[in-house]
Amino acid sequence: MVKHGQIFSADTQAVFYNWKQKPIQRMLDFDYLCGRSTPSVACIVQPGSSGGFQKLFFGSEEIAIPVYGSTPAAIKAHRAADVFINFASFRSAYESSMEALQQPSIRVIAVIAEGVPEGDTKQLIAYAAKHNKIVLGPATVGGLQAGAFRIGDTAGTLENIVACKLYRPGSVGFVSKSGGMSNEMYNVLSRATNGLYEGIAIGGDVFPGSTLSDHCLRYQNIPDIKLIVVLGELGGHDEYSLVDALKSGQITKPVVAWVSGTCAKLFKSEVQFGHAGAKSGGASESAQDKNAALKAAGAIVPESFEGFEGIIKGTYDRLVEEGQIQPHPENEIRTVPQDLEAAKKAGKVRVPTTIVSSICDDRGEEPTYNKVTMSTLITGDYNVGDVISLLWFKRQLPKYATRFIELVLMLCADHGPCVSGAHNTIVTARAGKDLVSCLVSGLLTIGPRFGGAVDDSARYFQDACDRGLEPDEFVEDMKKKGIRVPGIGHRIKSKDNRDKRVELLQKYAFKFFPSTKYLNYALQVETYTLQKAANLVLNVDGCIGTLFLDLLHSSSLFTEAEIADIVKIGYLNGLFVLARSIGLIGHALDQKRLQQPLYRHPWDEVLYI
Questions:
Q1: CA angle in degrees (0–180, nearest 5) for 275-279-281
Q2: CA torsion sign, 500 to 505 to 510 to 511?
Q3: Catalytic residue list contains 275
Q4: Which of 100, 102, 246, 350 is deepest in the core (most CB within 10 A)?
Q5: What whole-number distance in Å separates Cα of residue 524 and Cα of residue 501?
Q6: What is the residue-wise DSSP string for 213-227?
């Protein structure tokens, strides 16, 4: 890696592997904060995806970042992107990383996952070295160039970025194994120096893709880096390659270094720290021996970590005095707009809700229907009628009422294949359409002429009954207005061929309802209309409509205004829709099961004029 110098710039763009919203948005926020003109994420690879895009923000502007299903497809479309950020799991990190390394345009790859098998990592290292490429990680947060480019979550939150002055370049090149300690050191560098120029966390595994000395040698080749700061750790021999580079004169810039883990000497047995590679072994792997070797090679090494910041500041101040570093005044920085959710959480904005719901709540441990938990519904004495009463009427109706609702659903579920709704559903099913399309085609026929008279029946019968109109007055008044009485009349049923559904509903109501005032009035109207024609019977729509009026009034659970609202909104017709959906679905499934061919209406049943 000695041939490498600066690997990032303000024009660097990356291919991001395995969609993660937060790291990508953090990269874009860093871009905007630094004043970049183009986003640093060129595209996203989501394995198996058919393409498309993901919406994110660049400042206050919403942008669309393209998504590809494979790495070669993404790189073919974005030749300028030369960094590959791999958020794959440890199980697939090797395959996806090797595929990226084999792409000619990729120069740098960051492998975020921990636990990548060591054998796989060695193969990545060997391939990268042979083809003069750079691997950061595994087990890394990545790295950044201040004011130019950031990998994923490097340096943490936007607040930390600003506090550490990472939005503009300083004069320090920093390298460490630890991403967490890197964040801490960026803060230290912002206090002790004019800040970071580039920072890299090589990763905490035993075999990182690149070493501390690899990056220090790069920093030697970057003119804007005047001071190199290294934070090593006990275990392994990585720091000794840096010792060799210092002794051989390959690195001539001031190096301030500290190797953490001196406390391991206090333990009698081998100690494993946080990283896989951070464990005490032989004497040469101890923090004490490494610190001593670095110091002997010419690195500036403090007596303890507590003295690290002070010795960094002293070295920086000397470089300023010598004129090697010329501090620049701070520039005004951009303000990155805050996400709506974050602003709401912080209490900085008030956002009106977009939907109001009063019938259910799914935010707790279990959903509730009008404050009744799912557990209560399942373990208690509840049925479908109770669920409808909670979700539609927002009350727990008495058992006779919920049982009546279920009777309506049962009796109205189907009325044969010849009615308009079933016919439409059958024709649609035979056209090969999906179940939902078949159902909707049938439901769309429900209206004033088919199944839609329940609401109107309730309205007209209630109005006439409440006004005290005699049955003949009501009928003749409707006739003068040119309105057929809703709920009266049937194409097939008649005085001598009664609708069994109507009889069953009436029988149930007379037995269980506290009052049948409106049904009684409707039957009086039927007596009058049957004098005009034998088929002007009270039909199922009229029976359901008047019985629901009786249910609402006699239950004493609703005010007059609430009852009027229920009838006006269309609750009652909703029952017919719900019930008939059962039958329409049945017809659709029946046609598909029978494999019926496309329907064509016969010519001899069409009048051509």
A1: 155
A2: positive
A3: yes
A4: 100
A5: 19
A6: HHHHHHHHT-TT--E
Structure tokens at 543: 């029976």
**Is the confidence at residue 499, as pLDDT, over 70?**
yes
Instruction: Choose the catalytic residue: 275, 490, 553, 587.
Output: 275
pLDDT mean over 160-175: 97
**Beta sheet of 83-86, edge-to-edge order:** 53-58, 61-68, 41-45, 14-17, 83-86, 108-111, 134-136
Burial class (CB in 10 A: 0-12, 13-18, 19+), 261: buried
Q: Which residue bears the tokens 């034998």?
A: 534
Cβ–Cβ < 8 Å for 215, 202: yes
Instruction: Give yes or no for residue 270 having a pLDDT over 70.
Output: no
Please, what is the angle between helix 93-101 and helix 118-130, to 10°?
0
Residues 170-188: tens digit of each pLDDT:
999 999 999 999 999 999 9
pLDDT (0 to 100) of residue 572: 87
Q: Which residues face 149 on adjacent strands?
A: 145
Length of the chain: 609
**What is residue 278's predicted lDDT score, i.e. its pLDDT?**
47
Cα Rg of the chain, angstroms: 39
In angstroms, the CA 377 to CA 368 distance is 9
Q: Is the dihedral of CA 502, 505, 507, 513 positive or negative?
A: negative
Pick the closest to residue 413 from 546, 578, 268 (CA basis): 578
What is residue 280's predicted lDDT score, i.e. its pLDDT?
55
Candidates 253, 239, 133, 138; CA nearest to 197 is 253
155 φψ region: left (φ > 0), alpha (ψ -120 to 50), beta (else): left
Query: In b/e form, how buried is each residue of 271-288, taking b as 16+ CB within 10 angstroms?
Result: bebebbbbbbeeeebbbe
What separation in angstroms does the CA of 360 have from each of 3, 98, 569? 65, 50, 19
Q: Fill in the DSSP letter of residue 334.
A: P
Whole-angstrom distance, CA of residue 148 vs CA of residue 13: 10
Amino acid at 262: T
